[in-house]
Amino acid sequence: MASSTPPTHHQKTRLLILSDTHTRPPYPENHPRPYRHPLPPADILLHAGDITNVGYLTEYTPMLSMLCSAPAELKLVIAGNHDITLHDAFYASPSGYEKHGKTKEDVAAIRELWTGEQARRAGVVYVEEGMRTFELKSGVMFTVYASPWQPEFYDWAFTYPRDVDRFNPGDGVENPVPDFPGVDVMITHGPPRGVMDVTHYGKKSVGCDHLKRAVERCRPRLHCFGHIHEGWGCERRDWGTGGVERVEVDRGKVERERGVFVDISGEGKRGLRWGEETLFVNASIMDVRYRAVNAPWVVDLDLPVREHEG
User: What string of DSSP letters covers 186-236?
Assistant: First the structure.
């Protein structure tokens, strides 16, 4: 549990970011693709959902093993629309049942897999919608807003009508995003509207307008997501000017280093100005054809450190 003692300074912290693995573990070490063993070491691993193709226990099991073995102290995982057995109401509906044909998965066993002893020992935390605070052994203490939900996108789990706002304060909103400076890191499955959310087929911007307004209010240091595979990339947005700076990727370097490394800490060339800028990452490992060709993102940023009394 984190103390109520407020943080007084910051520390460079490394985050490894994945999304949309769809049951694909990293390739063997000698494979040319950047998503391969061993994953780059980090302090925190974030997985922004679509762990599986369709939410079978036999899909979750190897993905949990992969995450347990990943070199990070803390691993935060949310569901995505393909992880249908983590959305009880959807899986109990005709749409959910039909996706598994005549078989029926044990949803209690699946949830136990993500919240049980194996996951806890390895630092894996399954995060549902809302705010959480986490603390690392180093004393780094940070806040996370998480949500697996996204606007209607075909007939899958964790979706809502586009005119429904579940992210901003209002009647019936259970887990609104807090105002700045309440959130250090946002992890959602879907993107905000206009941020690496354009589909290959139809060239439509399919992100959420309401999530966009929420992000503009809370201005986190980092917002990571996936869902739109073809949107893989990273952007640095200036809230004052509206400027957008796309992070350039050297594919050869990425393949050698097994990831795209971005340093926005105070030790880097240009540290992030929290409250004035946000780094957005679409971390989809799969491309639009469900090939695991995209690299993980590795982000260095400053996070608060709690001073321990005594």
Answer: EEESSPBTTSS-B-TTT--B-SBHHHHHHHHHH--SEEEE-S-GGG-EEEE
Q: Are 56 and 100 in contact (CB under 8 A)?
A: yes
- Measure the N-to-C terminal CA separation of the chain; round to a whole number of Å: 18
Per-residue confidence of the chain (310 residues) as pLDDT tens digits?
A: 344 444 569 999 999 999 999 999 999 999 999 999 999 999 999 999 999 999 999 999 999 999 999 999 999 999 999 999 999 999 999 999 899 987 899 999 999 999 999 999 999 999 999 999 999 999 999 999 999 999 998 899 999 999 999 999 999 999 999 999 999 999 999 999 999 999 999 899 999 999 999 999 999 999 999 999 999 999 999 999 999 999 999 999 999 999 999 999 999 999 999 999 999 999 999 999 999 999 999 999 999 998 765 5
**What are the backbone angles phi and psi of residue 15, rounded to the nearest 5°?**
-120, 130
- Alpha-carbon distance of 303 to 221, in angstroms, equals 9
Name the burial class of residue 220, with classes exposed (0-12), middle (13-18) and buried (19+) by CB atoms within 10 angstroms of its CB: buried
Mode of pairing for the β-strands spanning 7-18 and 297-306: antiparallel
Tokens read off for 174: 């259970």
Q: Please, is 49 exposed, middle or buried when counting C-beta atoms within 10 Å of its C-beta (0-12, 13-18, 19+)?
A: buried
Residue 95: alpha-carbon gap to chain centroid: 25
Q: How many CB atoms lie within 10 A of CB 202?
A: 7
pTM score, whole prediction: 0.96
